[in-house]
Amino acid sequence: MEHHIIPPSHPRYKSLVIREKIVQGYLKGITVLSGLIAHGRGEAFDYILGEQTHPPALRAIEAAVATMLLAKHPVISVNGNVAALVPREIVEFSKEVNAAIEVNLFYRTEERERKIRDVLLSCGAREVLGVGEDASATIPELHSERRRVSPRGILIADVVLVPLEDGDRTEALRKMGKKVISIDLNPFSRTAQMSNITIVDNIVRAIPLMIEKARDLKRASTVVLKRIVESYDNRIVLGETINIINNRLTELAKKGVFLELPKA
Ligand code: ATP
Ligand code: MG
């Protein structure tokens, strides 16, 4: 399999390393073509956000972790992009918050499901739901076929973490009465708008922060966790995020050219 060597001195090194992971995911049959397009949309928003985690995202992360720690049956939904980018971190996080992991694909084939499961198992997952026969339950979904889910996972979940999910699917989960936490770089997407908690950040930055936060909050009392959840307002957090974008663009617009050629 062809690997592109990216020199660490490249000004966009980190972004290129992430992109290469998605390409490798595609070559291994984990990620699909539409996943590559979705990644490009994410990159565009990350540019606008300055490729950093902003304070509203930190608040969403705190509320998300508290919600998962309080949940009876939290589930982390994993697709091809998630498996290509942060498989190890997803497994680690699932253990910190005691959440089940379920493979959940928009373009479902059993081969891809199994490949994603195997990646997660090789990263230390104890069990991966939603593969083959295990996805025996169906839930109603707008604009696409009824979706198959695991009767031990998403079907009975009270909280579902959906990193990089489609808007229709998010809406379908909400209609089933589930609390939905999403990670999505686009604050304007239907997913971002439909979620109970939206973490507007790159998944490669967000999940490690969520692991840290979980280690921290695991020791907190139920009262403290509930207070965090109750005082969280996704409308305010999304509004602040859009404001950050707005202010950043205004500043950059004043300069026009804000990058300079390095001295020879
Ligand atoms: P909608 O929610 O309106 O249906 P969409 O059609 O863009 O939006 P999808 O293609 O299903 O939704 O989801 C991809 C989403 O994930 C995009 O909003 C994209 O910005 C975001 N995304 C892609 N890569 C990353 C990443 N590494 N971290 C966080 N978000 C990402
Ligand atoms: Mg969509």
- Helix and strand content put the structural class at alpha/beta
Q: Tell me the CATH topology.
A: Rossmann fold
Q: Which spans of ≥5 residues are poorly predicted at pLDDT below 50?
A: none
Taking the alpha carbons of the first and last residues, their distance comes to 36 Å
Tertiary shape: globular
The count of domains is 1
Q: Count of DSSP E strands?
A: 7
How large a portion of the residues is in β-strands, by DSSP E? 5-15%
| Bound ligands, each once | adenosine-5'-triphosphate, magnesium ion
Structure commentary:
- By secondary structure, the chain is of the alpha/beta class.
- It has a single domain, classed as Rossmann fold, CATH 3.40.50.12640.
- 52% of the residues lie in helices and 11% in strands.
- It has helices at residues 13-27, 33-48, 55-70, 80-85, 87-97, 110-122, 167-175, 190-194, 203-217, 222-230, 234-255, and strands spanning 74-78, 100-103, 137-139, 147-149, 159-163, 179-183, 197-199.
- The longest helix has 22 residues, at 234-255.
- It is globular.
- The model has no long low-confidence stretch (mean pLDDT 95).
- The chain binds adenosine-5'-triphosphate and magnesium ion (MG).
- Residues 38-39, 41-42, 45, 164, 166-167, 183-186, 189-191, 202-203 line the site of adenosine-5'-triphosphate.
- Magnesium ion is lined by residues 166-167.
